[in-house]
Amino acid sequence: MKKIFLLALIFSFCLSFGQTSNIVEPEKIENSVQKKHLNEIMFLDKAISLENTKETDFLKSMTFQEDKDLDIRVFQDNSLVNYLHQLNPSLPADGLLKKGNYQFTFYVDGKIIYVENLNSGAGTTESKTLKTTFRIPLISSKNEDSWGKFLWSRFYLTKSGIDALDEGKHILKIEIRPYLKTPTVKTGNIIAQGQINLIVQNKNIPEEQIKVQNIKPNSGWKVSNELYDTKKVRALNQKIAENRFRDITSIVVIKNGELLLEEYFNKYNRDSLNDTRSVGKSFASALTGIAIKDGYLKSDNQKISEFYDLKTFKNHASSKDNVTIKSLLTMSSAFEGNDQDEDSPGNEENMYPTDNWIKFTLDLPMTENKIGKNWSYFTAGAVLTGDILDQSVPKGLENYADKKLFQPLEIKTYKWQYTPQNKVSLAGGLRMKTLDLAKFGQLYKNNGIWNGKTILDKDWIKKSFTNYFSDTPDFEGYGYLFWRKVYTIGDKSFETYQSSGNGGNKIIMFTELPIVMVITAKAYNQPYSHSQVDKMVQEYLLPAVYK
User: Fold this and answer.
1) Which of 169, 211, 212, 442 is deepest in the core (most CB within 10 A)?
2) Angstrom distance (rounded) from CA 257 to CA 447
């Protein structure tokens, strides 16, 4: 009954606010602790309700441990919606909450490390309309499900908070402001702020985990005699051992076609089959090129209407008839599918529960976008590419891939994932040894030649490593199921094309350097998974091996 009353009260406030722009009346501030700490952020080392909070619970300093609770209690003198109202008095309450939220700024030792405008969906309407105090578990030993832990993860792991909080004494400060995006971002005054002294202890990592690992015999590669910066590699290994780079399972570097570096972590070894997720999509690209070379496909400009009677599927449109294999490979097919938008009908999470992924894909409506023009990450398109290959090559795709790609590369041990029709899935999930993933990358550096035999045409590789979206802002680019990424050392830029998969799995091929890197990891669905790998390459691996 109380909950119903509160919701009715909020609705009444919102109606009133929308009609008169009056400020909403928040809950009364009656708690003595809150009154004493208005506009402050207080730090705690345990989860505790406001009613049970005492002055002695608040911390001025603590020894920081990643597996121990770290909470903050925020005390405001008003509710969020009223702070937002000050930024734009003309918007009703529901409009303010759709376009704004809290902005968090993290400082370490007086330096800004991270600023985040919380997604407008974070927090409940009730809390943002009525509440003047709230608790945020930044680190929870019980793994509480809260937007706070993801906020902390982005500060700590994605945006280098973990490096700022190295061994020693530090001051962590947090400021909270309101922000409103209409359409430019407008930020208000500080709502609350607070700081704590953190003591970060030395983790005492044994030498065995830090030293550069020796390359064991029988790798299948010629071992390189080239020199590299062992100090950089040792520093990287220490970061991995300290869990500052998380869930890394292997690193391999090939230079001039020879094995330069081979390292394994977290109980993985040379024979481990890595679940590389969407790295497998790049194999779809290679197999399409092989099928074209062999004449089983005419070209990448073939339309999917040559393989399916599209009128028998839902949402038929003339534009669907013109979808090409190339547009599937470049993720620009104009299907209503975007894995980065959870509301998209073609999001991959909507595909997996169905009993026919091909029907799911071909049933999707089309957008108004021009085919080949607008990029959006579309796993179902890679699945469709696999089905086209399966029906076009002799004895099906699984047999063809083994005969035409894996056997020539001497890749003997691997595991596919399968569709509901028991066909190999090119959505991803191909499990493979790290050194075999390196063979795939080196094949591209060899212009498609392996042991004197042409597996891929060099023209196909050129197409695959072309950025088809150079005019897209804030996007480094995409080829034929390969991501484009540029790293820098000083004033020098180094372009790469990469196979990339959830968890931080990557095969990295430098276009102008004779280097291939493979990094495998299992940081699945973590916001830091790719950024930490990019940092490993940018700050450690590339400086170590580039001369």
Assistant:
1) 442
2) 12
Handedness of CA 524, 528, 530, 533 (dihedral sign): negative
User: In 3-state terms, what secondary structure has residue 442?
Assistant: helix
Query: How far, CA to CA in Å, does 85 sit from each of 22, 79, 90, 389?
Result: 9, 10, 8, 57
Q: Is 88 helix (H, G, I), strand (E, B) or coil?
A: coil
Terminal-to-terminal C-alpha distance of the chain = 71
- Could you give the dihedral angle defined by the CA atoms of residues 77, 82, 87 and 92, in that order, rounded to the nearest 10 degrees? 180
And the tokens for 466? 């072309």
Are the beta carbons of 199 and 175 closer than 8 angstroms?
no
C-alpha span between 205 and 241 (Å, rounded): 7
How far apart CA 275 and CA 114 sit, in angstroms, is 31
Written as six digits, the tokens of 214 are 């020796």
β-partners of residue 449 are: 454
Determine phi and psi for 363, rounding to 5 degrees.
-80, -15
Query: Rounded CA gap, 514 and 334, in Å?
Result: 36
Token duo for residue 349: 């999470």
527: CB partners within 8 A, 6+ apart: 150, 153, 154, 157, 158
Give every CB contact of residue 131 below 8 A, 6+ residues apart in sequence.
Answer: 26, 27, 79, 80
Which residues share a beta bridge with 111? 108
CA 16 to chain centre: 41
State the Cα–Cα distance between residues 351 and 379, nearest whole angstrom.
9
Q: pLDDT digit of tens for each residue in the chain (547 aa)?
A: 444 444 444 444 444 444 334 478 999 999 999 999 999 999 999 999 999 999 999 999 999 999 899 999 999 999 999 999 999 999 999 999 999 999 999 999 999 999 999 999 999 999 999 999 999 999 999 888 889 999 999 999 989 899 999 999 999 999 999 999 999 999 999 999 999 999 999 889 999 999 999 999 999 999 999 999 999 999 999 999 999 999 999 999 999 999 999 999 999 999 999 999 999 999 999 999 999 999 999 999 999 999 999 999 999 999 999 999 999 999 999 999 999 999 999 999 999 999 999 999 999 999 999 999 999 999 999 999 999 999 999 999 999 999 999 999 999 999 999 999 999 999 999 999 999 999 999 999 999 999 999 999 999 999 999 999 999 999 999 999 999 999 999 999 999 999 999 999 999 999 999 999 999 999 999 989 999 999 999 999 999 999 7
